[in-house]
């Protein structure tokens, strides 16, 4: 993937649409239509700003991309979608230019299309089994389902066509929702729709979960998440921020003393993992979680106005190979670092980050060091980081995850200079709720145990999203929320 200016992509799409006019397309013609690249900001410009990188399809591009869909009878794409959106259905209506209908089809099963269209890893979900990608023998050539979804959602937003779901008459029953990430947003909407009183408790001063404090503005503008929260408020959901359940109030008290008839726990996986190597307590070492929270939630990028500016880094090492690592690296660049290096102990092929994010990071000038991992963080003056002692690795036999295990190359250590190190090797769940809620079963990783309907070991207590799955994805959190909401609504209907 290399950068093509947006106006060039638009010009080509206009030309192709003209050629398509009045043509009856056979499957062979559809397969030969050019896959539409996502217009994006120029890498040289965007690496200095926080604005969204991907600009969204032009209407002509949507037409072409939607016409690439073969409308397969078996629709394998649907089985790849965690919430089973009627993908051929919404693509067909988008191809016909009926975006309103297209959106209504998506909204039957997915509450957050503007968000999912931007951040879902479609290449390993709906686009993976897509017949077009299979026929062309390249998953990157599958129909760009997520980009069409995003266009339709943005179109509705631009036309002011967003609708607030109808709420049934009040039932007088109260439900507490803990956390305000995608799992909780979904539960709040689905439960409130049935007329129950919904109170959402969020520990941070802003709602939205990782979509606000973790995923950066340049990938998911905060405005989009804020709109979803606003819609909940318009439905009558009561939101309380700066409310840490487990400290401000315990779960049992919400049920016994505050009259909540059901509780949903959607507290996510916000506890960063560390490498447990020497030097992790030095000045200049951050967890990706802390770094991204400071940049995003505390708006450290807004240097003129932010009350909590961030450590000025010049040469940054990011440890890890997932989306979180990419977000941290690209954020560090935008915060003014002269050089950003990502160190990953396997090869590019095993990197869990989305291919698109890695490509964007490379375009922006981030340097990757594969088969490398630090042995220790080196101390410089006054307890500050001065660099890393790095070890080389090679790939051995596959491990439990099926990926080839990285094996240390003996005596391969060397030093690299850095003034900042960001550790992005994953997250666990915060133990606060587990510790303050006797009777709530958790597994060995501290995740809450819930059945397929979101029911936990405690009466009237449900859970879903990352707190159950471990660090996962927005759409999976949303899907879990849907199931838990259904269980809560069934419980309260008795
Ligand atoms: C940097 C980063 C990038 C990511 N990129 C992607 C991506 O591109 N695509 C994708 O699909 N997924 C991505 N993910 C994963 C995705 O964001 C999560 O899977 C998803 O947000 C989980 O949703 P959730 O509702 O379970 O919890 P969260 O979004 O984690 O929200 C939980 C909320 O609960 C609050 N909370 C916690 N404890 C308490 C308490 N005791 N009392 C009250 N409130 C509490 C937290 O403050 C938080 O706001 C990314 C994650 C990170 C960290
Ligand atoms: S699998 Fe691909 S081509 Fe077939 S219906 Fe789904 S999106 Fe269209």
From TrEMBL:
- InterPro entries attached to this UniProt entry: 4Fe4S_Fe-S-bd (IPR017896), DPD_II (IPR028261), FAD/NAD-bd_sf (IPR036188), FAD/NAD-binding_dom (IPR023753), Helical_ferredxn (IPR009051), SudA-like (IPR006004)
UniProt cross-references to Pfam families, sorted A to Z: Fer4_20 (PF14691), Pyr_redox_2 (PF07992)
The record's listing under SUPFAM superfamilies reads: alpha-helical ferredoxin, Nucleotide-binding domain
- What GO annotations for molecular function exist for this entry? iron-sulfur cluster binding; oxidoreductase activity
* Transmembrane residue ranges: none
What residue stretches are annotated with the 4Fe-4S ferredoxin-type domain? 60-90
PANTHER family attached to this UniProt entry: GLUTAMATE SYNTHASE [NADPH] SMALL CHAIN, GLUTAMATE SYNTHASE [NADPH] SMALL CHAIN-RELATED
Protein name, entry field:
Glutamate synthase (NADPH), homotetrameric
Give the organism, scientific name. Marispirochaeta aestuarii
């Amino acid at each position: 993937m290399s950068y093509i200016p947006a106006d060039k992509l638009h010009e080509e799409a206009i030309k192709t649409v003209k050629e398509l006019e009045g043509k009856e397309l056979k499957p062979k013609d559809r397969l030969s239509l050019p896959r539409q690249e996502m217009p994006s900001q120029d890498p040289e410009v965007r690496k200095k700003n926080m604005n969204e990188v991907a600009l969204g399809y032009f209407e002509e591009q949507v037409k072409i991309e939607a016409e690439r869909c073969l409308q397969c009878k078996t629709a394998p794409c649907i089985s790849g979608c965690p919430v089973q959106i009627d993908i051929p259905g919404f693509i067909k209506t988008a191809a016909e230019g009926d975006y309103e209908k297209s959106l209504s089809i998506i909204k039957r099963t997915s509450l957050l299309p503007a968000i999912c269209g931007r951040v879902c890893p479609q290449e390993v979900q709906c686009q993976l089994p897509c017949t077009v990608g299979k026929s062309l023998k390249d998953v990157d050539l599958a129909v760009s389902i997520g980009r069409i979804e995003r266009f339709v959602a943005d179109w509705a937003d631009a036309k002011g066509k967003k609708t607030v779901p109808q709420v049934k008459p009040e039932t007088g029953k109260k439900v507490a929702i803990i956390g305000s990430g995608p799992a909780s947003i979904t539960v709040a909407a689905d439960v409130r729709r049935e007329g129950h009183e919904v109170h959402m408790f969020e520990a941070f001063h802003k709602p939205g979960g990782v979509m606000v404090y973790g995923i950066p503005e340049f990938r998911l503008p905060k405005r989009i998440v804020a709109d979803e929260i606003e819609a909940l408020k318009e439905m009558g959901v009561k939101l309380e921020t700066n409310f840490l359940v487990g400290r401000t109030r315990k779960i049992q008290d919400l049920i016994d003393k505050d009259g909540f008839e059901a509780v949903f726990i959607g507290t996510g996986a916000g506890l960063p993992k560390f490498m447990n190597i020497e030097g992790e307590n030095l000045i200049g070492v951050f967890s990706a979680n802390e770094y991204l929270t400071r940049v995003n939630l505390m708006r450290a990028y807004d240097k003129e106005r932010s009350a909590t500016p961030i450590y000025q880094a010049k040469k940054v090492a990011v440890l890890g190979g997932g989306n979180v690592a990419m977000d941290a690296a690209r954020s560090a660049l935008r915060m003014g670092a002269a050089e950003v290096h990502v160190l990953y102990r396997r090869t590019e092929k095993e990197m869990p980050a989305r291919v698109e994010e890695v490509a964007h990071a490379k375009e922006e000038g981030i340097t990757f060091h594969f088969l490398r991992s630090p042995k220790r963080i080196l101390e410089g003056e006054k307890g500050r980081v001065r660099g890393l002692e790095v070890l080389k690795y090679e790939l051995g036999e596959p491990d439990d995850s099926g990926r080839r295990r990285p094996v240390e190359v003996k005596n391969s250590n060397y030093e690299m200079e850095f003034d900042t190190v960001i550790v992005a090797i994953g997250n666990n769940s915060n133990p606060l709720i587990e510790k303050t809620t006797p009777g709530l079963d958790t597994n060995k990783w501290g995740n809450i145990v819930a059945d397929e309907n979101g029911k936990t070991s405690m009466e009237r207590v449900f859970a879903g999203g990352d707190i159950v799955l471990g660090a996962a994805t927005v759409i999976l959190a949303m899907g879990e929320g849907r199931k838990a909401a259904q269980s809560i609504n069934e419980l309260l209907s008795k």
